[in-house]
Write a structure and sequence with these properties.
Blueprint (H helix, E strand, L loop, with lengths): L3 H4 L3 E8 L4 H12 L4 E7 L4 E6 L6 H10 L3 E3 L7 H33 L7 H16 L1 H12 L5 H21 L5 H25 L6 H6 L5 E6 L2 E6 L8 E4 L8 E6 L2 E4 L1 H4 L5 E3 L4 E2 L4 E2 L4 E7 L5 H15 L8 H30 L4 H15 L2 H20 L2 E3 L3 H4 L6 E5 H5 E12 L5 H12 L5 H9 L9 E6 L3 E6 L2 E6 L1 H6 L8 H9 L3 E7 L2 E12 L3 H10 L3 E5 L4 H11 L3 E3 L4 H13 L4 E5 L5 H6 L2 E5 L4 H5 L3 E3 L6 H35 L5 H24 L15 H5 L2
Parallel strand pairs: 15-22, 15-24, 22-23, 24-25, 25-26
Antiparallel strand pairs: 1-3, 1-4, 2-3, 5-6, 5-7, 7-13, 8-11, 8-13, 9-10, 9-12, 14-26, 16-21, 17-18, 18-19, 19-20, 20-21
Helix pairs in contact: 4-5, 4-8, 5-7, 5-8, 6-7, 7-8, 7-13, 12-13, 12-26, 13-26, 13-27, 14-26, 14-27, 17-18, 26-27
Amino acid sequence: MVTEATQRPVEKSQIKIGGMQCSFCVESIRKAYSRMNGVIDVGVSLSHEEALVQYDPAKVTPAQLQETLRSLGYTVRDPKKVRSFEEEDAELRQHRNRLFVAAGFTLASLGLMSAVWLGQMQPWFRWVMLGFTISMIFGVGWPILKMASASLSRGILNQHVLMEFAAFGGLAGGLSGFFKHPWPMADFMGAAIFVTAYHVLSGYVSLLVRTRSSQAIRKLMALQPETARVVRNGLEQELPVAEVRPGDLVRVRPGEGIPVDGVVVKGLSGVNQSLVTGEPIPIEKGPGDEVIGGSVNQTGTLLVRVTEVGEESFLQQVARSIQEARALKPGIMQLVEHLLHWFVPGVLVAAAAAFIIWTLGAWLVTGEPNIERAIFASLAALVMGYPCALGMATPLAMIRGGGMAAQKGILMRSGEAFQVFKDVKKVVLDKTGTLTKGEPSVVEVAASGNYSQEQVIGLAAAVETASEHPLARAIMERAEGLSLPATRDFTAIPGRGVWATIEDRRVLVGSPSFLATEGVDLGPVREQLDALERRGQTVVALAAEGRAAGLIAISDTLKDDAAEAIARMKAASLQPVMITGDNWRTARAVAAQVGISEVLAEVLPEDKAEQIRKLQRQGHRVAMVGDGINDAPALMQADVGIAIGAGTDIAIESADIILMGDRVGGVVDAYFIGKSSFRKMVQNVTLAFAFNGIGVPAAVTGLVHPVFAMIAMAASVSAVLLNSFGGRLIPRREKTMRGPTSIAPTEEGNS
């Protein structure tokens, strides 16, 4: 069935948001957009401070979408521009200065309140307290007040609204005491100051600990050269890439980055395009072959006809995939989200009920309303209901788990690492750089005729001495320690092979097809050649005096702990899936070596993210493990993205978990730490809600002084803090680990 939404034109707007703090902000933004005419769907990411809005351009414009955010009190930034470290530091410094001012007002007001409690009331106290309160609410807390007003005007109840109700309740009660004696004016205004100061503190902590805005796009686009050598009318000129047009001819010399997407019209060369396939072995390119901007030309000079520029180029498409994957990524169900959905309205209802009970209710029962107790009860309910401990329950558990992970060389960067990883059943692993080392090396040498394996590798290394090809370097590394014969008359045929003269013998080294075109009979080594190629290995052939002398198989080797890591995943009921841009033959061969039965091969970067989405649509929670540029969109799309720390910056910036090093077994360690931290999170929320759940009804009775409500709020935070870290503050003897990659029983048992 075709719906109206699918019939009308749909456009997407990606918006970078500043000022987000918690899941309340996510829900506020989502509600505001969902109530706009023309908005079809919206995804909001707290971790990356982004929204992806799908809308009908006939009914709403991008400018209106951005203005909605600004009216809610958030800032809007260009999603294509990553803020500099100086800008981030300036924002942090601004919040820190606000916190210092708030702390100053809070400590000063606490001193005045203490003096009043001790009977040292002075006439000027009330003026100073009034000044402090107004300064906190309308000065330090002005940004919070603006956000609360904007949210309330749209019928959105969030933490800002709840805080302002408590602050204005304290101000109203304090003003009553300003004109009426006796009245605990200082207590009411103190409550307003304290709750505002705590909100400023929570905002600063959120800014400090949350994931920094990703710098992936800036680093990705930096791979593409800024200029290109364009050949026009027979003349070569260096122009900015932005001025290159489809149809232009661009010359790329050895060792240079290819600046554009295009088709080779002249030249032969090996091109490293691992950013597309993830494979370290270069691909030979000649006339008619496509090349991709950002890949590296390694051996020969190429003349390339430009086919795609600007937004349609490969790197721009990968950048777009990363951007959209962030916002399309399934939002995690925060542990406290359901509670908070009803919590704020419930607290406001309780505060209103307290006021009615002690005014109208007291009047009906005693014939006289108890205004003082009504205000006390309402304010105490608002203070007791402020979700401070609930808000800290999750980040404290995450900080604790992050400390445990850091001891094992694992960096847990986001909430998904803790709250979703426990539900993951499918772990998708990239092949190159994740399961394998990502470096070509000689894995087998086959000799023919009268030649030994040592002679084959020695002759090949001697010929390749003058070559800069990556496969030549692999051969040279294998021949290290051998005495190499002298060569002369070295000649390289770009994209095919090399030859040289050794002791009056013409020795050829190159692809089997190159030797065949040079008249070499490969019959004596055909059976071995076919067997090596079936195993997905790249074969370099050697011939001397026109006869086949041997074969050298080059491949990307497995990491030392790859097979063990896969076995541990299976033991933990995690289903490994291998994904790669390499061919099916190589993919199946590698998967069989490590024990993976489910394989996805010949998958391009933009398709990797789609493969993750397919698994998600099937109902699976998916973790993705990768290390390359081509993995970045999939890492961002996965429920949990895991980057190998030895990989590219772009993959690392796109991930929720980073393994510091190249050990695959860290995936299983992170899984158990995530499960352990989630259990701690549940305990924290239970403790926090116990304080709020008991405190709010108690406040309605009028028996809880607002100051005691503040003390109870501090106690709830302390309880959550002790539960998170108290056990780890007590020294204990660790039980013996069951191997270098195992989780210590004490870590699990004490979680």
